[in-house]
Design goal:
By secondary structure, the chain is of the alpha+beta class. It has eight helices and 21 strands. The protein has helices at 12-20, 151-155, 369-378, 400-410, 427-436, 456-466, 485-494, 501-509, and strands at 25-28, 34-43, 56-64, 71-77, 82-90, 96-106, 113-119, 122-127, 132-137, 143-146, 167-168, 174-178, 196-206, 209-220, 230-239, 245-253, 260-268, 293-301, 310-318, 324-330, 340-348. The strands form five sheets. It has a five-stranded antiparallel sheet, with no helix packed on it. Strands 2-21-20-19 form a four-stranded antiparallel sheet, with no helix packed on it. Strand 3 and strand 4 (71-77) form a beta hairpin. The radius of gyration is 27 Å and the shape is elongated. The N and C termini lie far apart (55 Å).
Length: 510
């Protein structure tokens, strides 16, 4: 949709009004399995980074940010090699509080990047002009592979109408992309009176290997109005938690009441014809096929009055009410649009099981002392927390309930907290634990639970085994390490002769 960029004039009063007015207008519609509700939008803050951000075209969710209380997304730009790392914070109901560019990863070549999907250690991106799909090492920006694409997409492409979208399912077994508007052999492009037929390309994923496994015809609606310039195409695909795929269509009717309109559809492949084989590989124009089913979830405009160019969508964190965040990015490459970030609430219309409680807050496959520190930092977090902030119960709060989940998981395999090996669990062990706090790694240094890390959990095991609070002798040396706030709380309570485990938890949850 690069012809948007050629329209650089507009009435000055309208232009000024758009730059300072950021609203979101919509019309809601029900769908078979999901509903979508727009929440709000904010301008991306780029003041803390030494590089420019523009023409954002695709976005993917990376998880909780290293910056407390924020969630991290990666964004590709269609005129830059930089993948922008974006940190966003949200209310407990999903509305955006802030969005800030915090870092970048520079890819080793410049293409017209349009879509992005996180794949763990690497990222996959789609590029429009090949069109192509490429994998990059996310730590170095080096290309790892260029995925083989069926020749119909490369031989019959329309300029600047290639792969705008990219989606990957949560299981990591499927990926999808699609051309933005019809291939030359598949029919006309969209107009106010004419739809356009595109192909959704499906890949089977095995590790980092992608193999094309099907193509399905998707009908993009006609342009929403007759304007100075008209275009409409498929801009994004997103895979939802239950495997459902949704599609973003964006429509341009320049210098009309709504110059830029966005529409999101839930799509259904169940009855669709696989058009990857003969005779459909020679073109869809005039062929009898069953297209992908689609039902509208939402149509409206984002950002300034008249609409902005919403181009990328990503499934974000789950909300405490069981719904999900959907985050959108706007391509600023025209005078209609700015660096706008948009949030939506995505709700299933049938029950989806809650995420299981877990004490593995950093999701490294091991519930250990590092997870305790994660919980400690996130305790009483006021903005939307995630598992990576210590919300092990997924209830929108980091509190004593999450600590209990961690303790329950962490207690498995604990050894007897006889740190000095004298067959007597007494106050001497407390002094050993204290000296080893935040530095020890062995039983002799205070590691009661075989975690190779001496922390607050080891004190809990000592208390359970000791059965009564410790009496600290007058004049005893209590050499305090450099603990965090929670560590100080533990040590302060150690000096109280009536300490019991429940009092320690109560102190945390007050």
């Amino acid at each position: 949709m690069k012809n948007l960029k050629s329209y650089r004039t507009r009435f000055s009063t309208w232009f000024s009004f758009m730059l300072f007015t950021h609203i979101l207008v919509s019309s809601l519609a029900s769908a078979a399995s999901w509903s979508l509700n727009p929440l709000n939008d904010v301008l991306l803050d780029t003041t803390s980074v030494g590089f420019s951000v523009s023409e954002m075209s695709g976005v993917t969710y990376l998880g909780t940010s290293p910056i407390l209380g924020k969630h991290r997304f990666a964004v590709v730009q269609d005129a830059s090699q930089d993948v922008v790392l974006l940190d966003a914070s949200f209310t407990l109901t999903g509305s955006l509080l802030s969005a800030e560019a915090v870092d970048r990863v520079t890819l080793d070549a410049l293409f017209d990047f349009e879509g992005i999907a996180d794949a763990g250690d690497g990222i996959f991106v789609s590029e429009e002009n090949g069109p192509g799909v490429r994998e990059y090492d996310f730590s170095t920006g080096s290309q790892l592979q260029s995925v083989s694409i069926p020749s119909v997409f490369t031989a019959q492409k329309r300029p600047n109408k290639g792969f705008e979208s990219l989606a990957r399912n949560s299981a990591g077994t499927k990926m999808w992309t699609a051309n933005e508007e019809a291939l030359l052999v598949d029919g006309p492009t969209a107009s106010p009176t004419q739809s356009t037929l595109v192909r959704i390309l499906e890949f089977d994923v095995n590790g980092s290997s992608l193999t094309s496994s099907g193509q399905f015809a998707y009908e993009v609606d006609p342009v929403h109005d007759s304007g100075f310039s008209n275009a409409r195409g498929l801009s994004e695909l997103v895979s939802l938690p239950d495997g459902t795929l949704i599609a973003l269509e964006r429509s341009l009717a320049a210098l009309t009441t709504t110059s830029l309109q966005a529409s999101v559809y839930e799509i259904d492949f169940s009855a669709a014809t696989d058009v990857s084989q003969a005779p459909f590989d020679q073109g869809l124009d005039g062929e009898e096929i069953t297209k992908v089913g689609k039902e509208e979830l939402w149509t409206g405009e984002v950002g300034a009055t008249g609409g902005e160019n919403l181009e990328g969508l990503a499934l974000g964190p789950r909300l405490p009410n069981g719904n999900w965040l959907l985050l959108g990015v706007v391509d600023s490459g025209d005078l209609f649009s700015s660096n706008t970030i948009v949030s939506f609430e995505l709700a299933p219309l049938s029950l989806i099981a809650n995420d299981p409680d877990t004490g593995d807050f950093d999701q490294d496959g091991n519930t250990d002392g590092q997870d305790f520190l994660t919980w400690q930092l996130g305790y009483n977090l006021s903005s939307l927390p995630g598992l990576g902030h210590g919300d092990g119960t997924h209830d929108g709060e980091v509190d004593g309930d999450d600590l209990a989940v961690w303790e329950s998981t962490f207690g498995v395999g604990a050894s007897t907290p006889d740190f000095n090996g004298d067959s007597d669990i007494d106050g001497t062990e407390v002094l050993i634990w204290q000296n080893g706090f935040n530095s020890g790694t062995t039983l002799a240094e205070g590691d009661a639970n075989n975690s190779m890390f001496v922390d607050g959990a080891d004190l809990t095991f000592w208390q359970d085994a000791h059965g009564q609070p410790v009496l600290v002798a007058a004049g005893a040396s209590l050499s305090v390490p450099e603990p965090t706030t929670w560590g100080l709380l533990i040590l302060a309570h150690l000096l109280h002769p009536l300490l019991i485990r429940q009092q320690r938890i109560d102190a945390c949850t007050e």
